[in-house]
Structure formats: structure tokens, C-alpha cells
Amino acid sequence: MEYRNPVFRLSLMAAAIVGLSACFDSDSKLAVEVPEPPATEQPESLPPQPELATFAPEGQALTAQINWTDYGVPYVKADNLESLGFGVGYAFANDNICILADQIVRFNSKRSLYFGPHTPGTTDNANLVNDFGYLALGIRDNAEQHFEDLSDEAKALLNGYAEGYNEYLARTGSANIDPGCAGQPWVQPITPMDLLTFSQGVALLPGAANFVQTMFIAAPPGQSFEPMPVAGAVAEPVKTNISVRGIPDPNPTEAGSNGWAIGKDKSASGKGMLLANPHFPHTGNQRFWQFGIEVPGSLKVVGGSLSGMPGIVNIGFNENVGWTHTFSTAEHFVLHRLKLNPDDTAGTSYMVDGEPVAMTTKTHQIQVATGPGSFVTLEKTSYHTQFGPVIVVPGQLPWGTDFTGDAVAYTINDANLPNFDIFDHWLGLNRARNMDEYKAVFEQETGIVFNNAMAVDKDGNAFYTDGSSVPNLSPDAVEAWQNDLFHQRLSDAAGLPIVPGDSALFMTDGKIPFERAPQLERTDFVQNSNNSYWLSNPAAPLELSPLFGPTGVEQSYRSRMGQKLLAEKETLAKDDLVAALTDNRNFLGEELLEPLLAACTAQGVQPVLVGDELVSIKPACDALVLWDGTMNKASAGGMMFREFAIEFGKDPQWQVAFNPADPTNTPRELDANSIVMRQLAVAQQRIVEAGLDPAATLADVQFVERSLPDGSPSGNRLPWGAP
């Protein structure tokens, strides 16, 4: 489309946004009471959705109004989606330009160009790995090939957001922005294609993005994986000394959340309520950014989104529906174990249903900064199959002969490669007027990427689904895999799903559709705290494809705390939801503290043997006497219990074992034996060796501290409560 010179209007709003009942705080916590329905009688079926203007009229400049609250939350109002994206892009750049500028560089494979081959202060070649990895995944190529296939709504949001970001940069000047990136050559105007590439990279964060190293070192048996200089005197591979230590973790940051959707039968007021408690990082590109949006008569939403989300809200509420997400246990990718063609000595073909299939290759080039104004161009080949790109984890997932004596190779098949539903899916949720419209979005789109989704509408209907992208193996393939003892053991050892790659039966067909995904609609509640879909409501357990996560398994303490809070009262008021967020109750403490104190008091000053050392646990016991059972900043002894809980988690001592028939009440009842006393002693030792007092409050020992310009601590500390 033709780009237009934007005009921007800015104003300040001194009061908080009105008309929506909400409570926000700096920990990205959100408790929402969905407004009461209008007093007038509602028709049985809603009229068609009001028309939502997409692009600004031809020849008309993009305009948007931004009102900032006293606490710095922007509310963006515009007449069409393109202008709305423009305003959100401007506001986000005002708050976080360095974050998005850095991620645009990352997913466009330009880190080595701007920063050299290594992360600062190391020789890790991480930038080389990043750049070649995302080129191998082809996210920029996918964006360029499919941009024109996007809906007009998605294009409008991307176009407007890029223009808004660029307008902020042009008005402010690259030297006058956040000092973290001011004046840097990599802070440049962006394009809609950059944003689409960025979104495709974000979609791979729970999957293939963690395997870029394994793709970097993937080379046929006997061949070097090292990149080659394209020109110059050096004609040998560049030594990078890259090593992969074990199979990657698909959730390395332990991203998680809590979410409740309270229906009319569980709500004290008879109105739907939502609790959204995302646990994503407080820094970096996965930090939530809070804002509001409005296109008068068509769209009005308040909430928060990940960096770079072009004009739409990920977690939030409109006048009719509130929704939230938690990180899903579903498998967002599968690994395939290929059997190599025995007649191919090069190891670059594999067998499918008895027939050989040749791998394909892609050759990639990157520029690498070698000094001020100097660069070298490196070239590298990646290998691809019908089942995805080839990966290697030495000693575990080889390309060559494995422990069985077979010649094999492994690939990764990510359901989010690509995912172009992201923008339309969340826009649909932003516009939903009731639960039927909310659910209909999931029937049409699969853009939630890696999340469980919980929602409640103004009529008090609560709904849960695992809306994430899961590789669509046919039910026959899943059954065959479950009955394949070898691949089940291989999967258990890897901690990831490994399926056969020698049969077309195990080829995936896009993503599992909504009708085969976990879903539950209730009028009491649905919830999730990062365990699987199984106990979204314990009164109605679900059991579907194992690719969505395990069932019949012990629940995390955080999940059990949530279930306990929901069960303590017959009905819940908004204050109960706020208390659930802010009281910082500790489930394990409530289960263990009383018997633990009795046992350690009985132990007295009699020492506990830890290795070759005798340790008195009286200081630990004295600290726990002071503990109030919460993880608040003022909780003396809270650190002591937390360190004990770490040790207890390694070898739990319960009198009543886990029972799948009673999953919210088991395991239970501490077995206060000598192992528990030793666990307490080990925890106390760790605290003392760190120079800390076991009875210290959490505020004394965990905090954020500002640095001086030279990097030294300033002494200006912000105490931190529950992690």
C-alpha cells in the first residue's frame, strides 16, 4: 500500500481510564470484574458486528490520540485499525524503543553485523548461532512470501505500527532516546515486514528458537559444521568451538502464569470475574506492556501485550468479555527420528515407507563485524527434510550411528513455523461480545501460539481451552506412537516427544484444530496455573491427546494453592480475587509449617549430620517460629522456608502419597523424619554460608538495586517480595 506522512496528536489524561472496573499493579497483575449487563433486555442473538474501519482513507494522514494516565499507561484512540496501530507503535516506542529495536535485529539475523560474533565480554559465538539459526528457520523468508496473504486487518495494524514507531524515532532523534540504545546504528526505522518477521520469531520461543544451536552444529557425518568465509585469503572453516550441552529446554525462563475465570454461580455478585496473573519477565522482550485501545463504536479494550504486538491486546477485557492466558503444557513441536538411507554414504537421504528421500539444503550468508568499519562475510549450509530442519545433540540426538547401531538423524517440526494467525486471532478476542463469539475465534484461527486461554463474559459464562499451536499428528499416529515402546522410552529420556520419521503416518498436517483441543465451559469457574488442561475444573476432569500434556499426574504446589483458594469459599467477591493476588500465601508452608516446627523443636540443639559435619538446626527452627506463612516483604523467616522448600522438593517426604483419584488433596501430611531434618540443615547452611541471617525478612535479602554509571551498586534498593 502507499504510505502516508503521519500526523500525531498527543494529550495527557490525569485520571485513570473510566467505565471499566480493574485493578492493576507494577507486577503485571490484573484483577477484572466484568461490568454488569445493561438494564435493558438483551435480544437472544446479537446483531452483526459493527463495521471496523481498516485503513485510513486514501490520501489522509494517520492520526491517533494518546492519553497517558498518572501512572504512565497510554490509552490510544483512532478512527481505524491502521491509525490505531500507528498510535500504539508510537506509544510503545516512547516507553520501550530499545527492546523492540534489539529484537528486530535479532530475528532479522543481524546481530553479528552490529555486535560482532559474540555476546559482550565472551567468546561464545552466540550472535553467529542466532543469525544462522533464524536464517535456517526461514522466518524472514516466510514473512516476505506470505505478507500479501495476510488479512487487510493484519496488514493495517502492521503498517500503522511501523509508521508510529518510525514517527517517534524521527521526532525524538536516535541520539535523544533511551540511553540504553541512544545513537546506536542498529536503532533504525522499521518496516511492516520487520514486524511480521519479529512476530514469527516470538512464536518460536517455546520451540524451535531454543534449538538454533542444535541446527548450527548439524552437518552430515564426517563434515564440518563451521561457517566458511566467502572471500579473502582464508579458505578454511572459521573455528567457533560451539558445543551443545544436552537437549534444549523449551521453556528456559520458566515462563508461567495463573488465571481464573469466575462464572456467575461462583461469583458473589452473580457477575463474571477474571483474575489474570501473568508471570512473564519484568525485563526484555517478553515483558508485558499495559495500554488501552479504542476505535469508537467498534473496539474498546484495556490490558497488556508482549513487546511489538501491533495495536491489539493479548490479555485484557472489553465491555463484554475478559480473558487471560497461561503458558501451556502442550507440545508445540515434535522431534522425528529419521532412518538414513543405507545406500547413501553421505548420510543426506532418509527412508520414508521404504523409499529414499533426499534432504534439501539452504545456503545462508551473514556479515560479521570484525572491528570498527570492517566486516567479513560468512557462509553456512542448513539441512532440511519433510519433517523439518535437521538438529544434532551430541551423544543424544546424533546424525549418524546411534546407540542401537542404526544410522539416524533427528529433525524438529514446530507447529508455529509459520504462524500468521496471531493478529487476526487476538483482534477477534478483542472484539468478542459474548462467549459464543469468543469461542468462534478459536474455530477460525490458531494464533494464541503457546497459551491456555480462560475467559468470562458479562453473563457469567466461563470458558477454558488450550488454544496453543500443537503439531497435528493424526489420531492413528498418536495411538501408534503411544504403543511404540522404543519411541516412548526415547521420548521419556529426552523429556520431549520423539516420533518415528520413517513413515508418512507421522507427518504432521498443520495444527490440531479447535474441535480436538481441550475445552470446558462452566458457570462456576475454570482455571489454570501451568499444569495441564486435566483439572481446569476438578469437578469435570478432561482427557485428550497426550500432545496437550499429561493427565493423572501430581499437581504443582502453585496449582494446588489456586485450587485451595477457589474451594475455600462457596462464592467469591472481587476483594477475594485481589487478596488471592496480593496476600502471597504459600501452599507448602500451610501444609508443612506446623509439623515441621514440632519436629525441629523436638530436635532442639541436638545436631544433624550433613556429610561429615554436625549442624545445629536451632537457628532455622527459631527463624521458622517467626514466619507468618506468607512470602511478603516483611515475612521474617520466609527465606528460610523457601530454601528448605528447595531441598524438600528434591526428595519430598509425605505420609499420604499422590492419588490420581484425589489430586487436589494429595500428597499430604509431612513425614517429619531424619531426611527432613537434614534438608532443613542443608538449607540453613546455604543461607549462613552466603552471610545471611536465617531469620531475615524477604525485603532484607531480595531486591532490585540501581547501578551507578560505572556499574557499581548505588545502595538504592527496591525490596522484592514473592518471586
From TrEMBL:
PROSITE patterns (UniProt xref): PROKAR_LIPOPROTEIN (PS51257)
Bilayer-spanning residue ranges: none
EC number: 3.5.1.97
Enzyme class: hydrolase
InterPro entries: Ntn_hydrolases_N (IPR029055), Penicillin_amidase_A-knob (IPR043147), Penicillin_amidase_dom1 (IPR023343), Penicillin_amidase_N_B-knob (IPR043146), S45 (IPR002692)
Keyword list, A-Z: Hydrolase, Signal, Zymogen
Keyword Nucleus tagged: no
Biological process per Gene Ontology, one example term: antibiotic biosynthetic process
Pfam family for this entry, one: Penicil_amidase
GO molecular function, one term: hydrolase activity, acting on carbon-nitrogen (but not peptide) bonds, in linear amides
Family to which the UniProt record says this protein belongs: Belongs to the peptidase S45 family.
Record-given protein name: Acyl-homoserine-lactone acylase
Species per Swiss-Prot/TrEMBL record: Saliniradius amylolyticus
